[in-house]
């Protein structure tokens, strides 16, 4: 076995890197293949805005005959490090057959690259963008992942922990059945807070209206991360890239913005889950896969609530009740039977406690790991 480092210009190695998961997950029914149109974005220095401010490298573990058996990406996100006053590398896109030697050799190479970049610690899995896959699955292996959320075999945590990584934090995903009824109190508080605080819910009729709101949403998000650790403001190019990815799959009726004096102060993002269709088409949009995806968006019984937040000054003033109320309405009004609340930080104890009271079962856990270099 040897470790091969390659840059984003090596098309032969890129294809090997991309093809490896198909072999690893061949007999794992829960795995959802990524969109073929998306898997090359991490390597595209022209289209990926990450490369305008940062750098990355890629590793393959290959057998003596050149067959790939493991992979890893390591990132130096300079915007993140400048914002957080750290010298931290990210790792992501890790895949491996169940062999500790593969993982050890890959990470040793990744650690050395990060040290050569002047970095002092490494965390992950954490990707190129906010959609890049956050955390390693440590609970909930029996369930199919929500669209865009990472999945991995049960042996991955052991492989990673054996290389010296320790838990930094966990993020949880919860299940909500449409048969559950939120207390009337939640909806009444939501209405009262909107009246007293001058807040209003913005709904969208079509994707054109939604796209017009993107700059305002960007400003709101970047305001929210100010003063927080472990986050980083998004650049205009990053927002544009993320928006293009998300709006393609969006149902505008499921996207809601909370405004105060025409300025966004909160949001609720939900999307029809298309994971089942991705499995059927094996991630391929062409020639006819896109039809399957469009049909799935209309008939799926699952909705993914991918993000919900409100700026700090409204969190203790009933703003959270607005989010909960609108979340419930999105599920019921959309005609869905099941909802997944995707990746809520475990440090958000108050929100988790309130959601559990309303019948939400936190059935999946993803873990962020860290270690010193």
Helix and strand pattern: EHEEHEHEEHEHEHHEEHHEHEHE
Summarize the main sheet: 13 strands, mixed
Within CATH, the superfamily of the largest domain carries the name Gcn5-related N-acetyltransferase (GNAT)
CATH T-level fold name of the largest domain: Aminopeptidase
Tally of separate domains: 2
Radius of gyration: 21 Å
Indicate the proportion of strand residues: 25-35%
CATH architecture of the largest domain: 3-Layer(aba) Sandwich
Number of E-state strands: 13
Low-confidence stretches: none
- Count of helices? 11
Mean pLDDT across the residues is 91
Give the terminus-to-terminus CA distance.
Answer: 24 Å
Instruction: Determine the structural class based on helices, strands and strand pairing.
Output: alpha+beta
User: Portion of residues in helices?
Assistant: 25-40%
Broad CATH class of the largest domain: Alpha Beta
Shape: globular
């Amino acid at each position: 076995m040897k470790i091969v480092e390659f840059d984003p210009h090596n098309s032969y190695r890129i294809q090997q890197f991309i093809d490896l998961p198909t072999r690893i997950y061949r007999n794992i029914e829960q795995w959802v293949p990524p969109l073929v149109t998306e898997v090359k974005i991490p390597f595209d220095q022209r289209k990926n805005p990450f490369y305008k401010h940062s750098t990355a490298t890629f590793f393959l573990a290959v057998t003596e005959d050149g067959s790939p058996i493991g992979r890893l990406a390591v990132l130096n996100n300079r915007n993140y490090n400048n914002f957080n006053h750290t010298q931290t590398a990210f790792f992501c896109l890790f895949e491996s057959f169940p062999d500790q030697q593969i993982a050890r050799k890959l990470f040793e190479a990744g650690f050395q690259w990060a040290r050569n970049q002047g970095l002092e610690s490494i965390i992950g899995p954490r990707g190129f963008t906010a959609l890049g896959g956050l955390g390693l699955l440590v609970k909930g292996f029996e369930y199919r992942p929500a669209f865009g959320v990472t999945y991995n075999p049960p042996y991955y945590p052991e492989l990673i922990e054996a290389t010296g990584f320790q838990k930094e934090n966990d993020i949880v995903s919860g299940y909500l059945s449409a048969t559950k009824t939120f207390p009337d109190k939640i909806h009444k508080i939501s209405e009262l807070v909107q009246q007293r605080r001058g807040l209003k819910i913005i709904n969208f009729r079509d994707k054109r209206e939604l796209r017009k709101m993107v700059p305002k949403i960007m400003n709101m998000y970047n305001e929210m991360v100010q003063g927080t650790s472990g986050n980083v403001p998004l650049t205009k190019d990053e927002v544009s890239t993320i928006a293009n990815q998300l709006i393609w799959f969006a149902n505008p009726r499921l996207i809601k913005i909370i405004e105060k004096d025409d300025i966004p102060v909160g949001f609720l993002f939900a999307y029809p889950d298309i994971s089942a269709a991705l499995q059927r088409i094996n991630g391929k949009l062409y020639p006819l896969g896109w039809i399957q995806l469009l049909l799935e968006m209309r008939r799926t019984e699952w909705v993914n609530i991918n993000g919900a937040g409100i700026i700090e000054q409204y969190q203790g003033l009933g703003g959270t009740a607005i989010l909960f109320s609108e979340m419930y309405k999105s599920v019921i009004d959309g005609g869905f039977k099941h909802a997944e609340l995707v990746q809520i930080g475990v440090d958000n104890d108050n929100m988790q406690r309130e959601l559990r009271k309303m019948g939400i079962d936190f059935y999946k856990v993803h873990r962020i790991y860290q270690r010193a270099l």
